[in-house]
Amino acid sequence: MSTKSLRGSASNEAFSGRTMFIFAAIGSAVGLGNIWRFPYVAYDNGGGAFLIPYLVALLTAGIPLLMLDYAVGHRYRASAPLAYRRLHPKLEMIGWWQLGICVVIALYYAIILAWAMQYTIFSFTKAWGDDPAGFFMSDYMQVSDEVTISFNFIWPVFIATAIAWLALLVVLMMGVQKGIGRINAILIPLLVVMFLIMVGIALTLPGASGGLDALFTPSWEALGDSSVWVAAYGQIFFSLSVGFGIMITYAAYLKPKSDLTGSALVVGFANSSFEILAGIGVFAALGFMAAAAGTGVDEVATSGIGLAFIAFPAIISEAPFGVLIGVLFFGALAFAGFTSMISIVEVIVAGFRDKLGLSRPVAVAVVVIPLAIVSLLFFPTTTGLNLLDVVDAFVNNFGIVAAALISVLMLTAGFSALPTLRDHLNSVSSFKLGRTWMIVAGAVTPVVLGYMLIDQLTLNLAEGYNDMPQWFVNVFGWGMAGGLVVIAYLLSKLPWSRRTSAAFTSPAPSVEDAYLDRDLLTQDKAFTHYRGTAMRSPALDQDYSLRAIQHGTVVHQRAPWDDRTSTDDDAPASTSAGRATRDNHEGGAR
To answer: For FRET with 562, which of 80, 129, 178, 220 sits at 20 to 30 Å CA-CA?
Structure first.
């Protein structure tokens, strides 16, 4: 039975080609952290010397993990929950965990995007006046002195956030190619051009050289500090969008024969190049700010919200061409945030499409509208900034890191999937992988992620979080992080919809299915006789992914609820082979 007769699989959509995929992947990777996090992390961890551990982290963790996500998504052609399920039924929970992380991030990411949009407009009139900090905290966000939850809405922020959600709804409704692909193909080149112009102007400002000296002057003794290396790995990990389902989902939309490792190299180095460009632009501007104030760069250097919405407005107010710098900076921030948010929400849409067998328009509505309501209810309020602070810290440190650690451990020590995934990558890619990739992905990365997780866990348990009330941290920090795991487990136990082909078919066998290949090879007919099967078998230490993925499953089969009479082509080669196939891809039949 052809899988095309069944509806609802997210992998039915595809990017038109590798270039469109690369634009989308770069759009996801290049986000707010590249602009407002990397410059300060580099400055605070050895300056120019930081580039050494940063490059090491990129080559030994960032790109290998990117390739790992690509392999899972491309081989199993599905959203994160279903891709992990197809890899092994017991791994489905990891996919839902990653999807849950995306839900939480999407809720607060929209308001940051709204800030960037409004500050682009504010740049024309320098609406923040002489006190950017007071304007942002008191006039714009009206931050409450009490750390709690209230529903005192800040209506300008509310409206801007609603516009961000509406724009996202429209793009996702348009689909993978016409929506996600095309908007990234437009915004990413535009983002780069805007940022290059902004950096060029920043470099002409008085004092810019002082800022660049502060950023790039190496502090070689920092290389002996383990925290510097952890900071490098953390920056690479958080900036590449690995470990929480995005790259798995995007890779599922690639055509069967796509250069995966080559794409990972392009995306990884493009992301890092933009981070270095952002560092140059930001510290050139901070150098001007320090010179104008008669202080050192260390007194004005900051990161995150403080850099974007307090320090940069102060620079814009004083700098020549300040209006142009502001429009370019905040416009670039808005574009980077929007392309990243698209990828975050697409993970959720794809997951529920596969689980419930929904069409794209219905799935987008079912996902985006509730997310928008919750986001608008809690974040554009006088207490929203404190909520954002806690949720962001815990979903990153105890959500993304923990989920990535568990997934890597399961793919290595748990189910020994790395050889199969490596073979898949090599079968379609120009840059071939060997034992080194498996060592860095399966050994180096878990050690680093484990250290990061334990370090943050110890720190938060000992010192609390930012002097916030313990009940607030327990509910929206620890409670949120733990709740994601519980919800992921419950979702993994729900049956898959009968309306989706994704419920019981897979373009590739699970990693445990090598015995099935051996069973088929014992039959009288050649292995290639079975339509849709692999040309070669991992049971024989060979690659499994060169078969025509788009034609169906390992052995074509009928849905358990389909009463139509099977044909010779649809039936398994033998009763034993048929049982093995159904047992390993039962999905919605369960």
So the answer is: 80
